Amino acid sequence: MIMHTNILKSALLCASTEVVRYYMNSVYIDAEGFAVSTDGHRMFVAKIDLQGEQGGYIIPSDVLKRVLSGNRAEFIDMTASEIDGQRYTPVDGHFPDWRRVIPSDASGVAGQFNPDYVADFGKIGALLDCGKKGSLRAHIHHNGENATGVTFMGREDCFGVLMPMRGAHTNSA
Fold it and tell me: Which of 118, 165, 173, 107 is nearest to 140 (CA)?
């Protein structure tokens, strides 16, 4: 299948770096045509065209970083065992059921978020070419202390989920 490199770069921003949960230090190509990455605090999802390929495999982040490093191409060709002509071994593991954390609604109650994660969603918006520089590229749909949806300006094919920092606010008397 042909994949837009900026989708993969966006996914890498939300991929885990933990060695313990090695199966999350990756980008999952879902059998239903989604590229998904998460570190448990944030998640990126993009609808992709499998173009007849079988999904259901996990691409290690280090493989993607190596392929994308210095790559100026807008698209790359990939399969379950090869990316841009380089063979790799998919991660042998089970990717979490990412659909379970997608919020069904937004309460509008403000949550407290790790500012680095919020900035990463802004970077994703820039990679996906959402809006002009200096404009709102990612929109956080506040949901209090619950999982919060993130949408990107002009992109119906991508979204994010951001977990709030629990107990981040204090009561002043």
Answer: 118
Overall pTM > 0.70 = yes
Q: Residue 143: what are its φ and ψ, rounded to 5°?
A: -145, 35
**Which residue, among 122, 97, 89, 90, has the nearest Cα to 36 in the 3D structure?**
97
Mean pLDDT of 69-93: 93
pLDDT computed for residue 131 by the predictor: 65
Residues 6+ apart with CB under 8 A from 173: none
Cα–Cα distances (Å) from 71 to 84, 129, 137, in that order, read 10, 18, 24
φ, ψ for residue 62 (rounded to 5)? -65, -35
CA distance 123 to 128: 9
What is the spatial distance between Cα 31 and Cα 91, in angstroms, rounded to a whole number? 15
